[in-house]
């Protein structure tokens, strides 16, 4: 048998995906102005970004980036452990630890790398990693990279999580869950999962990429909103690229956790530190997220307005209290067609299809932001209503 030619095989897989109507396509956004996006010569109202608090274009965040770039240049020039760890990184880590009520925090260049690095440092071959079926891809990939036994439980099923832990009682175990699920918008049953972990002697890790800034007092995230702290959830990961409007991520927890990650998390060690100006911008974003609570209040009011309007129209919203308000459509082609019809009416909304979500659960991932206005929500609802009334609509 001749060897498979790798590029041919890849091209064949891409063609297969295209035939299934599941090809992913890139779009160039020429300009962004709050939630408004210019693309293909048109100006569209976006309901697809993760800029939940509208901080990506906050004047103080932009000013902090410019100031630090003027002073320090663009690149960090090295990995953290050589000479890339600058004052801006140290100050941001301190602010993140304080905000989330933890001893220390450690920056990573992306959330994907933070999850890979944390799982790979904590887990060894033979350990157990129990995860919610709907966890983000990078948590799943991290467990596989670590060589741990990956055991998944049905979405938000606490008894299922407990059973998975009990199935391997003698191995060291980590239970990892999204705090807010990225494609569904619902919040994990954190108090119940924490109780299971205490009972079973497992360590709980929460990826709060979509909770930080949005939920909890002070925007400290889903763990704080559940009344839990570092003792119950020893490992917190969150990103800087969503509600904080920047880019990058961090892990926060005990001094022992952070010291260990610094030694053993390969995606932390063997990569260039994020630009110091980006860390300075993220620090300004943390301050704005904490102090400008009107952003959280406005977002909550917009979420309530959208949900009430959608309920009146009889739309199949999912039970989500967060800025992620998916509209379940089922069929991938229907989701794509609906997103295209919305685009014709001036809205940009992401159609999420398999393999990102399970087969038969394609949806529009509608995301709201404090940068939206009430009228924006009303216009979207009006467009959804018009589409529903079109002949052939489901
Ligand atoms: C739950 C969750 N974790 C991690 C990530 C990865 O973060 P980043 O975009 O910073 O790599 C994402 C999305 O991007 C996410 O939704």
Automatic annotation (TrEMBL):
* Reaction it catalyzes: 6-carboxyhexanoyl-[ACP] + L-alanine + H(+) = (8S)-8-amino-7-oxononanoate + holo-[ACP] + CO2
Origin: domain of life: Bacteria
The GO terms this record gives for MF are: 8-amino-7-oxononanoate synthase activity; pyridoxal phosphate binding
Residue numbers binding substrate? 24, 136, 356
Q: Name the enzyme group at the top EC level.
A: transferase
The coenzyme or cofactor needed here is:
pyridoxal 5'-phosphate
Q: Which UniProt keywords apply?
A: Biotin biosynthesis, Pyridoxal phosphate, Transferase
Role this protein plays: Catalyzes the decarboxylative condensation of pimeloyl-[acyl-carrier protein] and L-alanine to produce 8-amino-7-oxononanoate (AON), [acyl-carrier protein], and carbon dioxide.
Family note:
Belongs to the class-II pyridoxal-phosphate-dependent aminotransferase family. BioF subfamily.
UniProt-listed NCBIfam families: bioF
Instruction: Return the protein name.
Output: 8-amino-7-oxononanoate synthase
Organism expressing this protein natively = Rhodanobacter glycinis
């Amino acid at each position: 048998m001749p060897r498979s030619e790798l590029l041919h095989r890849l091209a064949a897989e891409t063609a297969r995906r295209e035939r299934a109507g599941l090809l992913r396509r890139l779009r160039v956004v020429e300009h962004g102005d709050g939630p408004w996006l210019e693309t293909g010569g048109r100006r569209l109202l976006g309901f697809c970004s993760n800029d939940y608090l509208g901080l990506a274009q906050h004047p103080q965040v932009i000013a902090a980036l410019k100031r630090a770039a003027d002073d320090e240049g663009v690149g960090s020039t090295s990995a953290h452990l050589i000479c890339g760890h600058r004052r801006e990184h140290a100050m941001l880590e301190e602010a993140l630890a304080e905000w989330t009520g933890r001893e220390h925090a450690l920056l990573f260049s992306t959330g994907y790398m933070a999850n890979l690095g944390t799982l790979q440092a904590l887990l060894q071959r033979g350990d157990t990693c129990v995860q919610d079926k709907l966890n983000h891809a990078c948590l799943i990939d991290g467990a596989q990279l670590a060589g741990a036994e990956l055991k998944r439980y049905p979405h938000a099923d606490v008894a299922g999580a407990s059973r998975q832990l009990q199935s391997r009682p003698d191995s060291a175990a980590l239970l990892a869950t999204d705090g807010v699920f990225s494609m569904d918008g619902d919040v994990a049953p954190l108090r119940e999962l924490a109780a299971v972990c205490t009972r079973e002697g497992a360590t709980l890790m929460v990826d709060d990429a979509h909770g930080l800034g949005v939920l909890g007092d002070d925007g400290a995230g889903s763990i704080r909103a559940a009344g839990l702290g570092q003792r119950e959830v020893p490992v917190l990961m969150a990103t800087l690229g969503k509600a904080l409007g920047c880019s990058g991520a961090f892990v926060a927890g005990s001094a022992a956790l952070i010291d260990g990650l610094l030694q053993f998390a390969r995606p932390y060690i063997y990569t260039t530190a994020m630009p110091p100006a980006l860390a300075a911008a993220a620090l300004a974003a943390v301050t704005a997220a904490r102090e400008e609570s009107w952003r959280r209040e406005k977002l909550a009011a917009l979420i309530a307005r959208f949900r009430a309007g959608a309920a009146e129209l009889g739309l199949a919203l999912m039970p989500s209290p967060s800025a992620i308000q998916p509209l379940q459509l089922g069929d991938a082609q229907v989701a794509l067609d609906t997103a295209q019809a919305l685009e014709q009416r001036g809205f940009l909304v992401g159609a999420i299809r398999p393999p990102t979500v399970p087969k038969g659960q394609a949806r529009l991932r509608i995301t709201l932001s404090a940068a939206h206005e009430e009228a924006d929500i009303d216009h979207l609802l009006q467009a959804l209503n018009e589409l529903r009334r079109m002949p052939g609509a489901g």
